[in-house]
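Re-running Cytoplasmic aconitate hydratase to confirm reproducibility after the cluster update. Everything else is unchanged from the original entry.
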Amino acid sequence: MSNPFVHIVEPLDLKQPLKKFFNLSKLEDVRYGHLPFSIRILLEAAIRNCDEFLVKKGDVENILNWKVMQHKNVEVPFKPARVILQDFTGVPAVVDFAAMRDAVKKLGGDPEKINPICPADLVIDHSIQVDFNRQSDSLQKNQDLEFERNKERFEFLKWGSQAFKNLKIIPPGSGIIHQVNLEYLARVVMDQDGYYYPDSVVGTDSHTTMIDGLGVLGWGVGGIEAEAVMLGQPISMVLPEVIGYKLIGNPQPLVTSTDIVLTITKHLRQVGVVGKFVEFFGPGVAQLSIADRATIANMCPEYGATAAYFPVDDISIGYLIQTGRDKEKVMCAKRYLEAVGMLRDFKNSSQDPDFTQVVELDLSTVVPCCSGPKRPQDKVAVSDMKKDFETCLGAKQGFKGFQIAPDRLNSIVKFNFEGCDFELAHGSVVIAAITSCTNTSNPSVMLGAGLLAKKAVEAGLTVKPYIKTSLSPGSGVVTYYLRESGVMSYLTQLGFDVVGYGCMTCIGNSGPLPESVVEAITQGDLVAVGVLSGNRNFEGRVHPNTRANYLASPPLVIAYAIAGTIRIDFEKEPLGINAAGKKIFLKDIWPTRNEIQAVERQFVIPGMFKEVYQKIETVNKSWNALDVPSDKLYAWNPKSTYIKSPPFFDGLTLALQAPKTIEDAYVLLNFGDSVTTDHISPAGNIARNSPAARYLTSRG
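Result of re-run:
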């Protein structure tokens, strides 16, 4: 059907007349210049896809009239540019496509016509677990176990990557979905089918919002919505309110992006942003790197918004070049964004659009902090951590309480580990993980951790051997620059060697703790602690035996690992005493921002990104060795305990069937407060006493 807005189509460059775009400035509508930048992306998609069937002219008018319509609960269609999936939630989507092919074949059609219409990328990152650490071959051992456990799933996904068009699979061992999206997959501006248009994405993972930090509008959706988009259908969404989050001032020298995001998370939880977009603006944004912005956007689900959008600016353009994208394409993208009024200058307040509400944060007021012990929004200043934890110990059971009896508050349990005697108490750190795309995508905090490790080792500090330490980067680029800058060996000496490339501890794939540690925790009914650079710390997520879990920046993860306890006041108490008897304080080894930036400028270079990503689809030898059939229909295994043909297409006929009546419907689940995706779909271990475990055991 013809598009009613075809009159605003024009070439971006007269030398390339076949490369066109919808020039929104030609709408000559004064409302456009006042729209939030995130809403402009919804508008462009509606105009470009307007066919008076799935997307109507009235939808375009509703979006243009956002200032009025945002309060009226009006639904608008949105067709994202692409879809991103991870293996945990992506397998069911590929299973459905395989089942659709079977159904088309049964009805006498051509099954090869069933493919994603919208480009889809699937990154395998949820399968690897920290079974081994502190060994020279931990990485290889963990990856071998990953393949042993997931062979059937991997074979199925590799079959899918060959059988379907428009579906790219990034093999295991490559990195974490959102970091790979940021560093490699994201286009910022799409160049497809002869048109330029803004990149946008929906993903089957709640932290898809991380890509908002680069100026690509994206958020997490359920599998059914993702499949609908893959099949060319728009998402129907309520036109959202947009909260303008104004950043002013400069961060203090000791503050990290992690501290900033934990501060924002607590603030926006108090403001109340569920179902809304948050759009960042103000001169403070110009002080943040793309990695900093991506860290803030990553934790959008934790503060409850749908999206946390940073419009594209010159820093975004610079990041694309730094990460090895084609310079000519990047400059073309910039010209497009300028032409349609979507390139932002955060220091120019005349560009500030209208917002539903404006809230403000002065970055100079942010202090080093953690969040916990049970929720990401429960921010605690590092200076208050000891006092806060000790208050939580005796407080009534709840988000900030463990209800430990007064006579048990100072319990100590002695235990033996590898022939040496140790003690555990409430607050003892037993897991310290530098993990998660939230932070491992950020060279400043990763190099900060490396420089802190170097200074700690040189000062004679160590980490107790029973603490489960690990480093699971979100991409191979991280290992590259840690190695080239000379800090990797120091991280390894403290136990933070690379154990895998994937989500790992962040999603609960933390693996087993030493038996003697578990026995000591159980014997003393101790509140043991996990410290991780992740984005979620709900009780039971990280590990069943760590009742308290704190989110912290990578340097702080190392600091608490060295201290061995959360019950420390870094300003007054030393991290440790070296062999010479000298007290070493955190301030003695904490690297300055200038030190970190100097190393980052020298070692985080475009060549690294190009080298890592040009071989990303072929670098995993185990993946390459998987032998899968080239058939276009999947050969279902009736004995499989994991991959089954779904019944959705049973009894499907060419003639449209009338909908059947729904009778005796009832509530499946009635949820209380603070129910998370962890409760609904846990990604960690399957409990031995669960029905699922009994079923799997019965099947061998």
